């Protein structure tokens, strides 16, 4: 509940910032009245609508998705159907296979009824059934929590700020109204600063939703150590992928279960957790991690702030806490 509250609080903060920017610009330039606010709000709604309409097709094209039927992948369909029922989704998500060799999974769609769950060819080769089910539970939870819509709404705020920066800064630099040029440049620079701040807040929101979806997977009956092992295997698998292949998915990595571009760093960190060097993270290893204090370096903290996904060791320790709570029946959920 605390993660959900933080996400809702973030949504309120972001739109409060947007409201403050709009009112502030209106005050400084002497713009006011009903039509000014209708224009700005209308612009924001148009941006949300455009993202809402073209988003799924963009993902399908960039991820090279082929939708598959039950005869082609019966076990995958069965897993998704069972999880969708447990999550009380109104309809089983459409299931697709991405031609990408990077081992990963993702969910997208405009609504719960039009949702899609996709896995890459790479992930099907390295996970067993329990691990794959825990990953699918994570993705189903994104759909249940309407995360795609929330992140779409949040991302509009920095987008509007960036458009204001372009309009005012460059308008002030090259516009004909030299009298107001200095004020317009100042407003443009302020909008740019707010753009960077709100972009960081969007990434923070993305990290919250990853933790929240991890909890959701456990609520659907999956075991924390299965998801922890899946994350470990994804990092190991992604570390073997060429840099050129990783660059091709740079713009879409926010959809993934983990960040493939961080895989080399994550493997080094997670090998310390894999005490028996089995290539998995079992229940005992999770409990050992729970007793340890995680110390992140300054560079690790900065990388996490600039990432759409949590630091992997912190995330695995969060799963360890979920496992411990489940074992002790302490009512964590």
- The CATH topology annotation of the largest domain reads as Zincin-like
Specify the CATH homologous superfamily of the largest domain: Metalloproteases ("zincins"), catalytic domain
In total, how many domains does the architecture comprise?
2
Shape: globular
Got a strand count? Answer: 4
Give the spatial strand order of the biggest sheet: 1-2-4-3
- Please describe the biggest sheet, giving its number of strands, its sense, and whether it closes into a barrel: 4 strands, mixed
Structure description:
- With 333 residues, the protein is mainly α.
- Helix content is 66%, strand content 5%.
- The protein folds into 2 domains: 2-206, Metalloproteases ("zincins"), catalytic domain (Zincin-like, 2-Layer Sandwich); 224-328, no CATH class.
- Helix 1 runs parallel beside helix 6, helix 6 packs antiparallel against helix 7 and helix 8 (224-239) runs antiparallel to helix 13.
- The model is unreliable at 329-333 (pLDDT under 50).
């Amino acid at each position: 509940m605390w993660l959900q509250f933080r996400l809702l609080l973030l949504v309120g903060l972001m739109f409060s910032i947007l409201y403050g920017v709009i009112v502030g610009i209106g005050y400084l330039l002497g713009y006011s009245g009903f039509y000014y606010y209708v224009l700005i709000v209308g612009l924001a709604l148009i941006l949300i609508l455009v993202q809402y309409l073209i988003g799924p097709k963009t993902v399908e094209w960039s991820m090279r998705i082929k939708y598959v039927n039950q005869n082609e992948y019966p076990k995958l369909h069965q897993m998704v159907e069972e999880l969708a029922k447990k999550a009380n989704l109104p309809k089983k998500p459409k299931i697709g296979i991405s031609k990408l060799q990077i081992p990963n999974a993702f969910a997208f769609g405009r609504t719960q009824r039009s949702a899609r769950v996709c896995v890459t060819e790479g992930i099907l080769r390295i996970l067993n059934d329990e691990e794959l089910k825990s990953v699918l539970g994570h993705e189903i939870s994104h759909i249940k929590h309407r995360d795609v819509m929330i992140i779409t709404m949040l991302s509009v705020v920095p987008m509007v700020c960036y458009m204001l920066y372009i309009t005012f800064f460059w308008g002030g630099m090259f516009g004909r109204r030299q009298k107001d040029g200095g004020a317009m440049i100042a407003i443009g620079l302020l909008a740019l600063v707010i753009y960077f701040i709100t972009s960081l807040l969007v990434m923070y929101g993305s990290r919250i939703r990853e933790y929240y979806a991890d909890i959701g997977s456990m609520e659907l009956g999956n075991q924390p150590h299965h998801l922890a092992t899946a994350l470990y295997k994804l990092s190991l698998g992604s570390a073997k992928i060429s840099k050129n292949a990783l660059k091709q998915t740079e713009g879409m990595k926010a959809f993934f279960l983990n960040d493939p571009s961080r895989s080399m760093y994550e493997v080094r960190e997670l090998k310390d957790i894999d005490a028996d060097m089995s290539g998995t993270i079992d229940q005992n290893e999770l409990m050992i991690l729970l007793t340890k204090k995680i110390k992140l370096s300054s560079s690790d903290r900065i990388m996490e702030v600039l990432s759409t996904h949590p630091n992997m060791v912190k995330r695995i320790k969060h799963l360890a806490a979920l496992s411990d709570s489940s074992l002790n029946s302490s009512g964590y959920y």
